[in-house]
Design goal:
elongated
Length: about 170
């Protein structure tokens, strides 16, 4: 189990999660582990906590716990118990690709369609509407790509083993 964790850590981003449920009936020849992840920050340990805007916004927009299905081999799942801490791995470039798609595509599409509408129609109002259309089109593209990749095995989190209790 340790060797699997060490070899996977080179290509994977590792996250610690708590095992909530073990479902061995939904998928053939696989077991689905439902895990709970939460966003961790160091705000509670920071000295500038009261004056920090990140801490203030974090309290308002806290997403709390998230539940993820993680595929696992049935023989590995037999050794697990609900409540244990496990390591799950995500493809290393997944976060970078998602950030680029989410943060770069909308402004690029807005600017491109605003400039195109300005050139075609020579109207500031239509250029603004082109920017709105570009933003909505970018959101539709992001949604379509996200839904399509959700079912691809390369984008699924995988079970790496039990987490150490010292974290």
């Amino acid at each position: 189990m340790i060797n699997q964790l060490e070899s996977a850590s080179d290509e994977m981003a590792i996250e610690r999660a708590r095992l909530i449920s073990i479902d061995s009936e939904s998928a053939p020849n696989k077991t689905i582990l439902w895990v709970e992840t939460s966003q961790t920050t160091s705000c509670s340990k920071c000295e500038a906590q009261s004056g920090c805007q990140h801490s203030f916004l974090g309290r308002w927009f806290d997403r709390g716990a998230q539940y993820l299905p993680v595929m696992c081999e049935p023989d590995q799942a037999d050794l697990l118990m609900v409540g244990q801490w496990v390591n799950i791995g995500f493809p290393a470039g997944l976060l970078t690709k998602a950030a680029l798609l989410t943060y770069v595509l909308p402004p690029v599409m807005m600017i491109a369609l605003a400039m195109t509408f300005e050139q075609w129609f020579d109207s500031e109002l239509l250029a603004i509407s082109g920017a709105v259309v570009g933003f909505l089109l970018a959101l539709a593209v992001i949604r379509r790509v996200s839904v399509k990749q959700l079912d691809m095995p390369a984008f699924q989190p995988c079970f790496l083993g039990l987490a150490s209790s010292s974290v």
